[in-house]
């Protein structure tokens, strides 16, 4: 398990806490970590660097799925958040062999016709 800027010895009532998903099934080489909370881009970048350091750059595929929330004050690129039917922003980052693939869903950026 990787922990950046935190302690997993005790649970605190902060907005960003780790909880092991229940129930879970042991799947061999597959590891799933789930966090809920508000994370800055710097914390996510630190996590990606730690994954690369721990697992190496080409040995394993790594993926991060992330999702925003409908009442977030900002959207992508620090744009003002507006939503009418769907305010969730999300995406997937896939890493392998020194390549980075990113798929983003930007539902809530302000777009007037």
TrEMBL record:
This is Uncharacterized protein. It holds the Pfam family Ribonuc_P_40. The lineage of its organism: Eukaryota, Metazoa, Ecdysozoa, Arthropoda, Hexapoda. It comes from the Eukaryota. InterPro entries: RNase_P_Rpp40.
